[in-house]
Fold this protein.
Amino acid sequence: MVNEEVYRPSQSRRSRELLYLRLCGITYPDKNYKIRRECSPLACIEYIEKGAGVVQIDDRTFYPEEGDAYFLPVGANHRYFSDRENPWQKVFINLSGSLLDSLIEGYGLKGIYHFKGLDLRQELRGIVAAAQESKEDCTEEITCLLNRVFFKMRAHAKEESHTSDVAERMKEYLRNHAAEKFTLDSLCQYVSRSESQTIKIFKEAYGITPYAYFLDKKLRLARDMLLNTNLSVKQIADHLNFADEYYFSNVFKKKLGTSPSKFRKGL
């Protein structure tokens, strides 16, 4: 038995043809929470207030957590469940109708499902409150709130796309400057971001810091030079702008488990 507080709003038949809010409410923490729908006749928009879980939409899998929102489309296979150690509390709406299709198309959100860090609590709680309190058709109020939801999802998707572009630009910059000295300030200037923003954007995109990625590329260059040139370890260290050959050797051994000279001899 799912631990939920659920409501069905008052809507006329005509209103339901436009926008049918089938169910809405709040799901409370339950480690056994699990929902499965095949070729779902309804869509879901949910915002996670606490906890975490797993969402599967056809063959795509996401891991939403506190502060995230997600959208489950009509016609897809839905499977989602709580993290057993940290079950979620979330506010949800289940809906269908021609207006929903128009909103998805109009806001360009087809195929976009996970909205990391998008706060929809106020809008979805507002829809739940309208459904809970209404004694007459409340479709107009729900529609206004739903339009705000889709506006925020579109704005978030555009920002995510822009952030992804910024991360890719940083990656290219680091790759092209791997033989030089690393300075976070230069990278920040290149993408016009603060230090904290630069590190956060890169780490969210690739799972490592800019410096860790830069060092990996530098050591790849070092391996290539050890393999394909007759340059000494000192010359390679100088070429790649390490402080000296001893620092280069220590970093190389720490990361690769062997010294540059032994790496070359082994090959």
Remarks:
- The mean pLDDT is 93.
- The CA atoms of residues 249 and 260 lie 6 Å apart.
- The chain has ten helices and ten strands.
